[in-house]
Amino acid sequence: MMAPALWALMSHWWRNPIQFFAVIGGLALATALWCGVQAINAEARASYDAAAGVLGEGQYDQLVPRTGDTISVEDYIALRRAGWLVTPVVEHRFGAVRLLGIDPLTAPAGFAGLSAFQDQSNSFQRHSVFANAKTAETLSDELDIVVQLDVADGLAIADISVVQSFAKAKGLSRLIILPNQPMTQPLLEEIAPGLKRLAANQTADVEQLTDSFHLSLTAFGMLSFVVGLFIVHSAIGLAFEQRRGLVRTMRSLGVPMRRLLVLVAVEMGVIALIGGTLGVLLGYLIAATLLPDVAGTLQGLYGAQVSGVLEFRASWAASGIALALAGTAFAVSGRLLQIAQMPLLASGKSRAWVMARGQRSKIQGFLAVALLISAAILAGITNTLFLGFGLLACLLVGAALAFPLLVSKATQVFERRSKNATVAWFWADTRQQIPGLSLALMALLLAVSANIGVATMVSSFRLTFVGFLDQRLAPELYLQVDTKDESAALDKYLTDRGFESLPLPRADIDVQGEPARLLGVRVGPTYRQNWVFLDQIPDPWTDVKMGKGLIVNEQLARRQGLWVGHSVTLRQDLALPIVAVVGDYGNPSSQAIVSESLFADLHPQTPPLQFGVRTNDPQSLRTALVQDLGLAHNAMINQAQIKSASLEIFERTFMVTAALNVLTLGVAGFAILMSLLTLADIRVPQLAPVWAMGMTRRRLALLELARAVSLAALVFAAALPVGLALAWVLLTVVNVAAFGWQLPMFLFPAEYAGLAAYTLIAAVLAALWPVGRLLNTPPAALLQVFSNER
Amino acid sequence: MLLEFKSVTKSFQDQSGEIPVLRGVSFALDAGETLALTGESGSGKSTLLHIAGGLDTADSGSVLLEGRKINGLPDRALAQVRRHQISLVFQQFNLVPSLTVGANIRFQAALAGVLDPAFVDHLVGALGLQDHLDKYPEVLSGGQQQRVAIARALAAKPKLLLADEPTGNLDEETAAIVLAQMLALVEDTGAACMMVTHSPKIAGQLGRSLHLKAGLLV
Ligand SMILES: Nc1ncnc2c1ncn2[C@@H]1O[C@H](COP(=O)(O)OP(=O)(O)OP(=O)(O)O)[C@@H](O)[C@H]1O
Ligand SMILES: [Mg+2]
Q1: Beta strands A128-131 and A155-159: pairing type?
Q2: B212 located within any domain
Q3: Which of A10, A12, A253 to mutate against chain B (most B CBs within 10 Å)?
Q4: How many CB atoms lie within 10 A of CB A169?
Q5: Quick check: is B216 in a domain?
Q6: How many domains does the structure of chain B reveal?
Q7: What percent of chain A has pLDDT over 90?
Q8: Ligand 2 centroid distance, CA of B43 (Å)
Q9: Which residues of A touch B81 (CB under 8 A)?
Q10: Which residues contact A335 (CB under 8 A, 6 or more apart)?
């Protein structure tokens, strides 16, 4: 009994291939988007790791030789024996490539390239050198190179012994001091007097910034999956509606209800598996296309073992298929319930048109209003991540539910306003179609909103990130000295030669009993031009310069509730007003910034040991400083290089996200196409009377096209506020809940205009095929409507 | 005795209250016997037929099929009864639109696991459907579709064929031909047949006739 019954159920798809395609395609696209976002997230993470690798090298205190370039292994061993937790680094230049030897066992977590070793599944590759594809090309064939995408450009990482034997050198270049040291340890001077300690530099640690970006991307991954689910839901709904008669016939022929439910569940399970599998493959393809670096040809090109982001990961595949199954189960469960409750003798006629009317739309409207009100309330009180996502859910579901009702109302108004009979019919007819199109409309609304949200978020993120790098890495060269005399000499040397010298004295202080770091700055064009504030009085730098105000970072402001206008006590007799709050995305600690001279007043014993320098030619200044002042090479950091490397890495992620955006819109276009196609059969009887009354098929077809455009325009009009609200929630609510700081939101009207154009184009493209079919409907088919009326 | 109704009652709930439709109906049908059920529109003929076919349940009284009480059986058991003992032919044709004519004819027999290709061929020939087997139902005329429904019902070799105005949707001429073919095949297979009809002429072609009025058989 099972086989013929299953066959009869499945034959529906055979006879209605477009519906089948809609279900499979919807599932596949939903899954593909999910997987694609996962892949891109993984790629982005790898990029950030690479960026952090470049930035992170300077984030630890280090020991370097006072003279010469090498540290003896004996010194290293003596330090370890004495309880100093240090890890050795050997650096060797090979052309343009910096070959970095590290000790994977003792290097701190997150240290440059350490992840390269950990990512290797064959645990520990002692003899390999890790570099990205571009760098690998320029490296010597002698080395056993493994291509690892998340290693920064121009950097190759290997075990310390590999670098030592390649460089034919025995000594060590530097020792990194691990963050957590024993409480007591002998003085450095006693154990290794030939070494000096270099303090960690104040560069940007972008980890928090990127975590925030991932959180948002993941939210959008979920969203694109939901968009896909709408397609599945509407296609499955239609298929079930059309098979009501079949279900009843099968039961009257003796198929028990239970058996029928099992059959339908099995049928949909099989379909979900097919769609999910296709989706995983498609997602893999999308990711591979979007991440050109990951072309599978790497292996052949470089003769190097390829590893890295675009492995086919079982975890994506599993999560993709699980989502496809869960989504289908969600879409089907309601339908199964309907079958179970459907009386055997009920009318087998399709109720598709009755469904969305009356009570149902009242409940829908009520739900939508309730959800939107909850969203508004949550927006006011949300302070946890959980509530943040609750807020997102309320906002999106509420907007989606409200939308078809609003469109219906709008068409009613248009109909009443129209003076021409054809136009009035056009709007009335549009309204009649809304129940059938409502799921597709919701999908399009969500897709376009998500697009607006993504565009806003990504672009805001980019502006913030670039601004932040500009601010923190503005001085091209970053220098470090050891003594007060050296400090004064360096400052004089730079100033005499017309360089903008930016001394950076720092001291640990207390602000209202909480630890904070006080920084002194030499106010000048670099600060005035590059610093972007979250809040400020007009011209804050002048007040800072004159010692009449100070700047705090966002962390301090939020932690202590001190904002612009409040004042901070720096000394018993000195309380200064806060003149600006600066966003600080690379640093969890509180900071206050005053002028150089005020700093010297407050902490006369603390000379600036770090300097930033503005120069167009960092390389020659570097050489000059070594020659004239005897600065060690490793006391100078080329920040311009770091900045351009980081920017390039981020640029890749942004491009990928933009491509993903277009894809989401494509999916929504697909949803409309499928809805229109599946509705096409029902359209013929609706259009036949109008045709009989003398409207040409051409005219009808044009009106159908006009309908698609007007609906798309309505969608965009609604999506703009929803999308902006979405971005706002992510940037200012979810992010604050997750990380304690807020990403500023910027608006990008040009991008929105582009999106509006895309939306209209997607709708027109989706409508073209059904309209073409209508144009080609033979008059006989239209006539049949009248003869078929029983 | 194949089918027996004992004091069967049935009423429906309505906004205006309870409408009694069957008020104690009793009759018996022997194997191989043919029976016409007549009565005014709304007199409860279809309701009686649905109860006999296990599609609907009686409020009280009992319905026995081959001596076994079928009213009150769970869905599973009723489905089994329909699969193996009873076939139904309705006024609307209830074909599966996504299956070809041939697949539709084989469908019920296949569900019951009693598919006999030679017998199906015989039915197809007798009903003149041989040229239409690979078509889909939607392109057939009403008379052809009803022949497909009849072939489907008989291919399962039921002991009892229940038909509710099987020719009600057909013109008089076609109706007569389809009915004659159906009755000939019923006699061939030795199935019992209970048929609801408005037409005294059709009722006259069946072995026995019952008239339903005010919820009672007269
Ligand atoms: N599901 C139902 N709910 C409520 N009332 C019903 C239902 N089914 C039938 N009835 C009522 O029961 C009565 C008998 O209906 P039934 O369909 O059996 O009549 P019938 O004799 O077959 O009529 P016809 O010759 O027009 O087909 C009618 O009054 C009908 O309105
Ligand atoms: Mg009837």
Answers
A1: antiparallel
A2: no
A3: A253
A4: 15
A5: no
A6: 1
A7: 5
A8: 8
A9: 254
A10: A236, A237, A240, A264
Q: Is B145 part of any domain?
A: yes
Predicted confidence (pLDDT) per residue in A155-212, tens digit: 788 888 888 888 887 888 888 887 777 777 788 888 888 887 776 654 445 555 556 6
Cβ count near B183 (within 10 Å): 16
* Angstrom distance (rounded) from CA B12 to CA A652: 70
Q: Using CA positions, which residue lies closest to atom 1 of ligand 1? A: B12
Top-confidence residue, A436 or B163: B163
Domain that includes residue B44, residue range:
32-55+74-206
pTM above 0.80, yes or no: no
Residue B196: inside a domain: yes
Q: How many CA atoms lie within 13 A of A460 on its CB side?
A: 22
For residue A279, give the amino acid letter: G
Ligand nearest to the CA of B10: 1
What would the DSSP string read from start to end of A387-439?
Answer: HHHHHHHHHHHHHHHHHHHHHHHHHHHHHHH--SHHHHHHHHHHHHHHHHHHH
A213-243 per-position pLDDT tens digit: 666 666 666 666 676 677 677 767 777 877 8
pLDDT computed for residue A54 by the predictor: 53
The predicted-structure confidence for A247-262, as pLDDT tens digits, reads as follows 888 888 888 888 889 9
The whole-angstrom distance between B206's CA and the closest CA on chain A is: 25
Query: Which residues of B make CB contacts under 8 Å with A?
Result: 50, 53, 55-56, 75-76, 79-84, 88, 94-99, 103, 106-108, 110-113, 136, 169
Distance (Å) from the C-alpha of residue B88 to the closest C-alpha of chain A? 8
Amino acid identity of residue A268, one-letter, is M
A343 CA: nearest ligand 1 atom: 1
Side chain identity at B152, as an amino acid letter? R
Give the three-class secondary structure for A694: coil
CATH classification at residue B199: 3.40.50.300
Interface ipTM: 0.84
Pairs across A and B, CB distance < 8 A:
77
Cα–Cα distance measured from residue A55 to residue A478, given in angstroms and rounded to the nearest whole number: 13
Residue A253 has its nearest CB partner, among B83, B98, B113, at B83
* Contact criterion met (CB < 8 Å) for B98 and A15: yes
Mutate which of A248, A342, A345, A347 for ligand 1 pocket (most atoms within 8 A of beta carbon)? A345
DSSP letter assigned to residue B21: E
Residue A345 alpha carbon, nearest atom of ligand 1: 1
User: Rounded to a whole number, what is the distance in Å from the CA of A265 to chain B's nearest CA?
Assistant: 18
